[in-house]
Amino acid sequence: MSIPWKMERISIKGSNEWNEDELIVNDSLALYGVVDGSTSLIPYRGENGETGGKLASRLIRQYMESLSDDQGAVVRLNEAVLEANRRLREEMVSSGIDISDKRQLWTAALAAIRIHDRYIEYVQAGDCMLIAVYKDGTVRVVTHDSVAHIDRETKQLWQEGIQRGMTTREELREYVIPTIQRNRLKLNTLEGYSVVSGEPELEDLLEYGRISRIQLQGLLLITDGLFLPKEKGESASDFHELTERIMREGLAAYADWLISLEEEDADGRKYPRFKKSDDKTGIWIQLEN
């Protein structure tokens, strides 16, 4: 396949110790994606001090980049992610993780695509997003953020803490942590959200499919660290505005602007959020039909 395209990609560490995001770049399969690891609530550290979230996202990235069609087998994205999920389960078991305890699981959200001549194959879990742009300027949000209702509850509590007089990030974090712990028990359930966690339930909750390349001009894949910031009381992130900004300015410039807003609001009083700055990973592909 010889389909030319232009690509910009970034992965920027946030305010935590590790960048738990990963970029998937498999040029031989025209397979690209973003992965957002999430630290286990019961702390775990790998041989080099890696968090569970980092270990999960790295394992997924490495497996997806190892795939090839050299043997003549057809690589299907949903099957590849489920195999990565199975391997993650094995890795956790070998590391002594009690996989019956959701609080201990290493987890990651992801969004990935494979570019074909006439269509785009995609797969998604959690709050990583895929957005398509067409030649007439139409912006199409392809995926659904299944974590949004969980985040909304957490941010409402954050605002409640501010109203009660809490002024520092540490105070606010302590106030919302019990809710975060409770919501973690909902991963890969109908009341919660989908995530790569080694759990077999992912097979029924993973979203995947394909979209036609008719008039398709661009594809944007992002982790939630690149979402537009929301002020107190605002509804869900506006992916149309976000996409239009990136089309005008580029991914790197958009990320720089976002980081400057976070620096100005370090305690999360204007833009409620659990971390001062989340990891930011994205891929912007401009197709040339």
3D architecture notes:
This protein has 289 residues and is of the alpha+beta class. It has helices at residues 52-66, 77-94, 148-163, 169-184, 202-205, 239-249, 251-264, and strands spanning 5-12, 21-26, 31-38, 107-115, 119-125, 129-134, 139-141, 207-212, 216-222, 280-287. A 5-stranded antiparallel sheet has the order 1-10-9-6-7, covered by helices on one side. Strands 2-3-4-5-8 form a 5-stranded antiparallel sheet, covered by helices on one side. β2 (21-26) and β3 form a beta hairpin. α1 packs across α2 (77-94), α3 runs antiparallel to α4 (169-184) and α6 packs across α7 (251-264). The radius of gyration is 19 Å and the shape is globular. 37% of the residues are buried. The mean pLDDT is 90.
Topology:
Layout: E1 5-12, E2 21-26, E3 31-38, H1 52-66, H2 77-94, E4 107-115, E5 119-125, E6 129-134, E7 139-141, H3 148-163, H4 169-184, H5 202-205, E8 207-212, E9 216-222, H6 239-249, H7 251-264, E10 280-287
Q: Measure the end-to-end span.
A: 13 Å
Total beta-strand segments: 10
Please count the helical segments.
7
Physical arrangement of strands within the biggest beta sheet: 1-10-9-6-7
β-sheet strand percentage: 15-25%
> Structural class of the helices, strands and pairings?
alpha+beta
- Rg estimate, integer Å: 19 Å
Average pLDDT, to the nearest integer?
90
Shape: globular
For the largest beta-sheet, the strand count, sense and barrel status come to: 5 strands, antiparallel
User: What level of helicity do the residues show?
Assistant: 25-40%
Low-confidence stretches: none
Helix-strand sequence: EEEHHEEEEHHHEEHHE
